[in-house]
Amino acid sequence: NFLPSLCRHLLGCILSRQEDKAFTTDKLYSLYIKNDKLFCLKVLCINYTTYNIRRVQDSLNPQMHADIMLLLDNTEHPYIYA
User: Are 7 and 29 in contact (CB under 8 A)?
Assistant: First the structure.
């Protein structure tokens, strides 16, 4: 069930839906993955805007610095750790 689960997740992200389970089969398979290839990369690059409105990029490499902290909205604790 990997491919249908992946398609549900990706379509939910692309279409900004909170609930990613309500897609028809036709809608799920309308997602096109170029050359039917997925890549596993060891570094994640994240683009974001800083407090002084500058666009910057940061990278996460679990082999060098395995711990990250993310800000959460509307929770008891303001951060989540990974």
Answer: yes
